[in-house]
């Protein structure tokens, strides 16, 4: 399979094949299983700009429906992280006269609430109505739209130029990234910055985190690919900062061409990526091989535990669980249920594999022998919370192991 790059039109060959998949965050109700949407989840890297991308085009309207269940505030670690991001931007970039910050995909206002509390001019751009309402309840101003070049022009006309455009775990979701970059150029003031933090290709490769690939993640960024994309649209990558959140992310800072000097970190990270061959499609082929090994070992382990009469549950229903269970062919015969603290996911099932999602209280009463930790990026927080759990944890990242 070959397509042309969504950023630079260069050739993209499929390297990772995760099979036929439903939408990662669909979480249908048990009576909604008839018309499930499936597509081939194949991932490739552009030969020219090294951007890692999904080969299939999934209409964004099917993706961010009004019942979109993801809540950024669900983890206390995440809430604290984003309050910290807001405080830092207030201290470093939003210091001039009447500064203005725009957040793309403000979700439930987890970051902008701190900005709103500080009385600083802001606007969240958030197409999902339910989370937008949550943001508004925290005093955040929200424009219920998708961010693109046109929206950027309207915001500039209505509010003036932005000092900061921010996005977290959303920019890599947007398949029209080219329009977002053009929009950033339109909306930013002369010294403004576009700051975004997204799962990092280096972390995905290092941890064999193949479950980070699902329909919403149109791209997985690296310093090399973001620098190339920025250049194409008149922006410079002026800073990059590794983050521990979401199992390994990178925060990128773009500025208008020539406005700011790149930090030393940019050059250092580029050199490290070249050494780790993160700009080579062969790296994805190798990742595909390791994903196959995880698939084989995980299904073998669960099958043998079932044969031994052991009771296994799932813990956490992030979008990742959809990729893993559908890729491995794991259904209720191997994992009868998964618990998750998000009320809007409970009493629903994982798309495709149809594993029921229940409240954590069910898990605590059931006391299974093993729990597969699907929300592995929250391992510390979850294991601390479940310190009474007498069974054993099964992790499949970076390889299948029992704790
Ligand atoms: P997350 O990794 O935040 O998102 P994504 O869907 O992008 O992979 O998802 C973590 C899931 O784990 C989320 O549905 C909430 C759940 N969770 C718990 O059930 N208990 C917890 O203690 C934590 C931290 C998360
Ligand atoms: Zn490209």
Give descriptors for this structure.
403 residues, Rossmann fold, seven-stranded mixed beta sheet, six-stranded mixed beta sheet, 13 helices, 23% strand, Methyltransf_Zn-bd_dom_put
Explain what this protein looks like in three dimensions.
- With 403 residues, the protein is α/β, with parallel strands linked by helices.
- The chain has two domains: 72-279, Rossmann fold (3-Layer(aba) Sandwich), CATH 3.40.50.150; 283-402, NAD(P)-binding Rossmann-like Domain (Rossmann fold, 3-Layer(aba) Sandwich).
- It has 13 helices and 18 strands.
- The chain has a seven-stranded mixed beta sheet with strand order 7-6-5-8-9-12-11. It has a six-stranded mixed beta sheet with strand order 15-14-13-16-17-18.
- A hairpin with a 6-residue loop joins strand 1 (2-4) and strand 2.
- Helix 5 runs parallel beside helix 6.
- The longest helix is centred in the C-terminal third of the chain and has 27 residues, at 281-307.
- The chain is globular, with a radius of gyration of 21 Å.
- It binds thymidine-5'-diphosphate and zinc ion (ZN).
- Thymidine-5'-diphosphate is lined by residues 70, 74-75, 316-320, 340-342, 345, 375, 377-378, 381-382, 385.
- Residues 245-398 form the C-methyltransferase domain.
- Keywords: Methyltransferase, Transferase.
- Pfam families: Methyltransf_13, Methyltransf_14, Methyltransf_23.
- GO terms for molecular function: methyltransferase activity.
- One of its GO terms (biological process) is methylation.
């Amino acid at each position: 399979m070959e397509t042309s790059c969504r950023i630079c039109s260069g050739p993209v060959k499929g390297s990772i094949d995760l099979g036929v998949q439903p939408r990662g965050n669909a979480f249908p109700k048990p009576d909604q299983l008839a018309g499930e949407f499936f597509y081939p989840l194949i991932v490739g890297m552009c030969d020219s700009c090294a951007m890692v991308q999904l080969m299939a085009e999934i209409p964004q309207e099917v993706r961010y429906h009004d019942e979109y269940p993801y809540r950024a505030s669900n983890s206390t670690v995440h809430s604290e992280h984003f309050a910290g991001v807001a405080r830092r931007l207030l201290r470093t970039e939003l210091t001039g006269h009447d500064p203005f910050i725009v957040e793309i995909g403000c979700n439930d206002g987890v970051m902008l609430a701190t900005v709103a509390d500080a009385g600083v001019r802001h606007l969240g751009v958030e197409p999902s109505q339910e989370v937008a309402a949550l943001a508004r309840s925290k005093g955040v101003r929200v424009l219920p739209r998708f961010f693109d070049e046109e929206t950027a022009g309207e915001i500039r006309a209505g509010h003036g130029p932005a000092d900061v455009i921010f996005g977290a775990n959303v920019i890599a979701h947007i398949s029209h990234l080219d329009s977002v970059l053009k929009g950033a150029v339109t909306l930013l003031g002369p010294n403004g910055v576009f700051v975004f933090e997204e799962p990092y290709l280096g972390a995905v490769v290092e941890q064999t985190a193949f479950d980070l690939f699902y329909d919403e993640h149109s791209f997985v960024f690296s310093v090399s690919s973001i620098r190339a994309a920025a250049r194409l649209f008149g922006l410079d990558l002026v800073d990059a900062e590794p983050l521990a959140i979401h199992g390994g992310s990178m925060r990128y800072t773009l500025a208008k061409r020539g406005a700011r000097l790149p930090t030393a970190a940019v050059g250092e990270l580029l050199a490290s990526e070249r050494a780790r061959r993160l700009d080579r499609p062969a790296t994805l082929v190798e990742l595909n091989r390791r994903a196959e090994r995880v698939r084989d070992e995980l299904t073998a382990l669960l099958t043998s535990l079932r044969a031994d009469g052991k009771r296994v549950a799932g813990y956490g229903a992030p979008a990742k669980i959809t990729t893993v269970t559908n890729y491995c062919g794991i259904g209720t015969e191997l994992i009868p249920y998964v618990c998750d603290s998000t009320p809007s996911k409970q009493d629903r099932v994982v798309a495709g594999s149809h594993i029921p999602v229940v409240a954590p209280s069910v898990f605590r009463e059931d006391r299974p022998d093993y729990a597969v930790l699907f929300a592995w990026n929250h391992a510390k927080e979850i294991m601390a919370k479940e310190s009474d759990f007498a069974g054993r944890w099964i992790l499949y990242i970076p390889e299948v192991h029992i704790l």
